[in-house]
Amino acid sequence: MMNAGIVIMLMALALFMSTLFGNSYMLTSRSLYLSVNNHEHLSNIEPAVSWMKNKNYTSLFSFIHDFRESVRSFNRSSKEAKMWTDIIYADYTFKVVKNSCTGWVRYHKFPLLLTILSLLVTGAGLFLTAKYYHVPKGIKNDHIFFSKVTARGLFGILLGSLLILFYIVLYFRPEYIAPWVILVSGVSRLLSGQEASQWFLYGMLYTVAVLVMGVRMLLKYRGNRYQQFRTVSVIFFQTSFAFIIPEILMALNQPWYDFKNIWPLNYSFFYDYNLHSYTSGAALGWFMLFWGIALIVLGVPVMTYFYGKRWYCSWVCGCGGLAETLGDPFRQLSSKTLRSWKIERWIVHSVLVLVTIMTIVTLVNYFSEYKLLGHETRILHRIYGFFIGSIFAGVVGTGFYPLMGNRVWCRFGCPLAAYLGLVQRFKSRFRITTNGGQCISCGNCSTYCEMGIDVRWYAQRGQNIVRSSCVGCGVCSAVCPRGVLKLENAEEKTRFAFHPIGVKREKVS
Amino acid sequence: MHIVIIGNGITGITTARHLRKHSGHEITVISSESKFFFSRTALMYIYMGHMKFEHTKPYEDWFWKKNRINLVHAHVDNIDFEKKQCWLNNKERISYDKLVIASGSKPNNIGISFQKIKGAQGLYSMQDLELMEQNTKGISRAVIVGGGLIGIEMAEMLHSRGIHVTFLVMEKSYWNNVLPWEESQMITRHIRHHGIEVKLETQLFNILQDDRGRVRAVVTDQDEEIPCEFLGVTAGVSPNVDFIRNSDVDTSRGILVNEYFETSAMDVYAAGDCAEFRNPVPGQMRIEQLWYTGKMQGEVLAQNLLGNRTAYNRGIWFNSAKFLNVEYQTYGQVPAVFPQSLDSLFWANEQEEKCIRIVYDKENLSVRGFNLLGIRYRHEVCERWISEQRKVHEVLTHLREANFDPEFFRRYEKEMTAQFEKEIHSKSKSESALV
Questions:
Q1: Helix (H) and strand (E) counts for chain A?
Q2: Is the domain of B196 the same as that of B124?
Q3: pLDDT digits (tens, 9 = 90+) for B320-330
Q4: Which of B209, B235, B261 is the last residue of a domain?
Q5: Which residues 158-197 on chain B approach chain A with CB closer than 8 angstroms?
Q6: CA nearest A489 in B: which residue?
């Protein structure tokens, strides 16, 4: 039955992939008009691509190629004619492709989407039922290091490559997945009344992944209520705060806003266009601005003081939510060496410094009414967005799940995790308490630590674990066979306690 | 001074680490089992695919060089106590000023020749695990004889590979020679619930082999023939001291030592599984074969080697284990059969497979020990209560302080205390009635 489940899930994947193919594309005046909202651009592009009009393309690749080339040759001739202002820098390819698609996906989007989702849910349901129904509750990590998926085997590498490819296309060439956007555009219309973008598609895929793999998490860790509560929490925050509420805000003509996304993870929070949209809006816009600032200056330090950074990283955060659900099968792949710890500290704190400098420059420039740098801060934003926002957080952060574990971004890159970590390390009641002498140094805790903390190093010497990177997922405690570890919030003065129990030495002389 | 340690298990390595922490002596650790120290307790997790061998090493490989602890991957064939030299199987000789023997254990074979019967083996070393991997490849049925901690581990290992396991237990109930009846019953049920077959009060009578010498079935003392392709023999372990027998060092079952780990030979010490105390303090075993005691002995031995004469005293007993999914912790004195002077309070939740037993002195009502299944307690708190001889009533009112379960776990203190108070009340009533 487990195999049947896998087959059905693969069918869902195959159907989903196949929607990218077999569509036809026809450029019409209408599709062009819907895609290019700048009037001048439209009047320049239209003649350049007019030869494509009403021609039926069966290949997405040749459609994209022809459109791109037409715009490019227009730009070339403008350059030669030294008509600098005519050059079109904006990329309309994604929208044009989306609006010119006339294939089966466009006309059957609801049945297709429903079929894919129900295949996925049925397959996952079968698989999980077969895996957990007859098994007594208790955490079983059997065969994880024999599997070709979870132990960096062939399928793991394949899956990682697919994820990396997906992120590259999503961020840099979304036109190639335009049919997927069409597939979910009906849902977007229902939620916000707006056209779906690739980001809506991404949000929806993300939520489905968190939901399905969240259910797996609930089953795998049944018998451990800490794990279950935390999983319900990340599912809730992803579906409501990150997915549905922002769409409803859009429907109400408010800025798209995720109330749990905190600067500096949300690095564009202080960008001029965002500040503009908060302050020019009604009361809700101002609330968003103050809420966002309050989270940074009050929420993070206060909550982290009482509960450690876990209140965010493994209970609320979207990146954390995906890591803890979709990424859970890969948590054992994080490196535990001292060397990776050193590298981690350098990189993650550098990103924090970088984003802070960028934000300060942006704000000073904003309040000096652009006298400082004019609109040149955009270059800064573009560089940060490209290298950190897209490559690091997305391509590497998630694409590397099956290769380097599920917290690559959170551990090496996330500036908010670095900020939360500083508070956790120096001013918090949170720690992982070790239980006297019961440790047998087996290494389950270290192996399953997604943040690559060598938990055993501390546990075997009876030392509490206080580490800035610990996201408090609690899995070390869950997999410990001897009841040695407990995540706790207690008085600060007992945090760094040593409990070397058992050894009684009677000095004789 | 050159200190040579034979054995890189928890005792030898703890000794080496503490020597290095407090001194600049030259330290050499010799082992034929593995180049680097690994956690023996985690061997089962390698077989089940929870971990790889590298995960069982508590220290990274650079650790030893950085801390100037020489590692020699060889077997000690012989020791010349007069010239103070170890003769290795690679023809090398290593001279020592002080020698520590921490050679650990070997599985008891209860008269079964593992050489002659293919597919029959014990489980102690890394080599045993490799052999088990070969012996169980593609098989479907296994029998385990000996109902102790390694037996249940082996059963879980085989079970994780989809191999049907029949578990022969001599006692009336699993590990009933150590666990009181109720705990033992709960674990026996738990094992059966997993689909592992448990045959109680059953002993191995005969082993049947096929024409290639491989085990094909066992016959029990109940005259039942159980077909199997693998026979796990887990009848405990005994000191691995054959290489030192008939030498200047006195041995009995293990190498005889005093409370400072000194043997009968000059500058030769022994500790851990292979050592046997000549005169153990009352309540302490002659041979301690636990991870924890190995660790504690190593630490005390290092002090003695450094000239801080320190007697070993294990302190209040503690131990833990995991029976498939059920965790077990014990603190203090919880005998399988109670002597006249002791009584206990017992609470259980059969559905959740949790139970707790609090042992106390009938006379003065002071707490003596705790047994826990499926619930975690704080070592520090239990030890303090026991050593301060807290009264059972006092402990009951503070029971919450001892709980070490993860956050949001269901708590049973109210239910427990209510039941316990009723029990104590009725007990004291009946006793006063007798008077």
A1: 26, 5
A2: yes
A3: 999 999 999 99
A4: B235
A5: 160, 190, 193-194
A6: B407
- The Cα–Cα gap between A95 and A197 comes to 9
B137 touches chain A (CB under 8 A): no
Preferred mutation among B38, B289, B379 to probe A, highest tally of A CBs within 10 A: B379
What is the predicted pLDDT for the residue at A507?
A: 45
Task: Kindly give the parts of chain A with pLDDT less than 70.
Answer: 499-509
User: What is the rounded CA–CA span in Å between residue A113 and residue A103?
Assistant: 15
The closest alpha carbon to A64, from A27, A30, A29, belongs to A27
**What is the per-residue pLDDT across A81-121, written as a single tens digit (0 to 9) for each?**
998 888 999 999 999 999 999 988 999 999 999 999 999 99
Calculated CA dihedral for residues B251, B252, B258, B264, nearest 10 degrees: -20
Q: Which residues of A touch B53 (CB under 8 A)?
A: none
Q: What percent of chain B has pLDDT over 70?
A: 99
Q: Tell me whether residue B285 is in a domain.
A: yes
CB contacts, 8 Å: B52 with chain A: 145
Tell me: pLDDT of B119 over 90: yes
Q: How many structural domains does chain B have?
A: 3
Contact B404 A143 (CB under 8 A): no
Q: Are residues B81 and B14 in the same domain?
A: yes
Residue B434: the pLDDT is 55
Angstrom CA distances, A38 to A33, A44, B297, stand at 9, 10, 80
Strands (E), B35-186: 69-73, 76-80, 85-88, 93-95, 98-101, 105-107, 120-121, 141-145, 164-168
At B268, list the tokens. Answer: 């030769």
Whether residue B112 lies inside any domain: the answer is no
pLDDT at B432: 63
Domain ranges of chain A: 25-100, 428-494
Q: Is the pLDDT of residue B435 over 90?
A: no
B61-B65-B68-B69 Cα dihedral, nearest 10 degrees: 40
Assembly ipTM: 0.95
Residues B295 and B188 in one domain: no
Same domain assignment for residues B125 and B212: yes
Largest CA distance in chain B: 76
Same domain? For B14 and B78 the reply is yes
Q: Are residues B287 and B218 in the same domain?
A: no
Same domain, B262 and B196: no
**Span between the terminal Cα atoms of chain B, in Å:** 67
**Interchain CB contacts (distance < 8 Å): A and B:** 158
**Is residue B114 assigned to a domain?**
no
Cα–Cα dist A88/A75, whole Å: 7
- Cβ–Cβ < 8 Å for B175, B147: yes
In this prediction, residue B423 carries a pLDDT of 86
Radius of gyration (Cα) for chain B, nearest Å? 24
Are the Cβ atoms of B303 and A499 closer than 8 angstroms?
no
Mean residue pLDDT across chain B = 95
For CA atoms A96, A97, A103, A108, the dihedral sign is negative
Q: Kindly indicate the confidence band of residue B421, based on its pLDDT and cuts at 50, 70 and 90.
A: confident
Looking at the structure, do residues B101 and B242 belong to the same domain, yes or no?
yes
Average pLDDT over residues B38-46: 97
* Domain range A428-494, CATH architecture: 2-Layer Sandwich (3.30)
On the CB side of B342, how many CA atoms lie within 13 Å of its CA?
19
Q: Residue B115 domain-assigned?
A: no
**Closest-CA residue to B310 (of B339, B271, B344):** B271
Does this model's pTM top 0.90? My answer is yes
Distance from CA of B26 to the nearest CA of A (A): 24
Both structure tokens of B109: 């074979």
Interchain proximity A503–B383, CB inside 8 Å: no
For residue A454, the chain B residue with the least C-alpha distance is B58
Domain end point (choices B272, B305, B338) = B305
User: For residue B125, what are the domain limits?
Assistant: 120-235
What pLDDT does residue A503 have?
A: 54
